[in-house]
Amino acid sequence: MQIEQKKIMFVVPALKGGGAEKVASTLLELLATSDESLKVFLILLQKERVDIRQPNVEIIYLDLQDTGNMVHAMFKFLRLIYHLAKIIRHVQPSTIISFMDYLNVVCVMSSFLSRARSRVVLTVHTLLVSYMQIYVDGYREKMLRRLALLTYGKADAIIAVSKGVRDDLVKIFRIEPVRVHIVPNPVDIQKIQALSLETVDETVFSGDPPVILSAGRLSKEKGFAYLIRSFSRLTKICHARLVILGEGKEEENLRKLSKELGISEDVIFLGYKDNPYKYMKRSTILVVPSLYEGFGMVIVEAMACGVPVIATKSYDGIEDIIEHEKSGLLVPVGDENSLEEAMSRLLANPEERQLLVSHAAKKLHDFSAEDIVKQYKAILHV
After folding, report:
1. Where does 190-259 show beta strands of DSSP type E?
2. What is the distance between the alpha carbons of residues 244 and 298, in angstroms, rounded to a whole number?
3. CB neighbours (10 Å) of residue 353?
4. Domain harbouring 153, CATH code
5. Are strands 309-312 and 285-288 parallel, antiparallel or unpaired?
6. DSSP designation for 186
7. What are the tens digits of pLDDT across the range 15-66?
8. Are strands 57-61 and 38-44 parallel, antiparallel or unpaired?
9. Mean pLDDT to the nearest integer, 271-293
10. Are 346 and 353 in contact (CB under 8 A)?
């Protein structure tokens, strides 16, 4: 007997990359394998090698190149809306779920243009408006902010990754609270722990001195400049290395800052890594210096790897992950003295590092991918 398939559409820029992409990849894999009655259409903006072998997943690429020119970027945005609307009209999915702020805008507009009766569910991973007003002044970002304010309220449901993100949506976007669901990002704990056991070739992780690791997109809001300045203070009282994983437009400025501070030999940029977990496993501490975050997925990933975490109080709800001085240390945003003191404290106290790791391990079940996928399925109506 043939099973009637329900159709769901994932709209993602790529499956490799930052937190939102990791969430999409984890959800896609678990949904597709757990429900054979589900037909998943994966819409990707970038062509990439995707290792998905489930027969109920169909991949569609929208390979629209962006030259960086403003006129071209606007043309690409309009083409994206048009082409996605055509796909939605053809597929007629019961639910569309989008990842990343600009794709949230695109999906609302494309769904309207398609005239399909699909539910539109947006996922919001950052404090889009309140912090963009402070830290972002580019033309594209200003346009995105305006379009988000105009379109987000048209969605059938919105998944916010934390209380801070939910409050942003309710207060600033004026969206009914009943339509905003707080669901933390799912983390595949077992997969992360297995990957963390892979070997590391970089000699910086072998022996002394201790390694402070940080990972993420190299952009201003991630706070790497503040971390490097704090690390410069730290080097005056102890010997350590700072390793940064990730890539982005701020890399050149960060390298220049390290050189100006005279610490370039102790600040190592390793670029983007498919498996950051093996580096986490071999680090002494992990630091998340963000100026603002929506969730801070790297914190949970580090906990799964058994490394103590220092993070900034970058959003309302971070205490749901890190209980200060129990499962990690929290410091004020942008406070170089506090961050330097926290790093110095943990480097000097291996017993405290172990206690933090032990308490953090007990919180991991709160972010179990299997449990969180159940919450997603209820919201997606699948």
Report:
1. 211-215, 241-245
2. 13
3. 18
4. 3.40.50.2000
5. parallel
6. P
7. 776 677 878 888 888 888 877 788 999 999 877 777 777 788 898 988 765 5
8. parallel
9. 94
10. yes
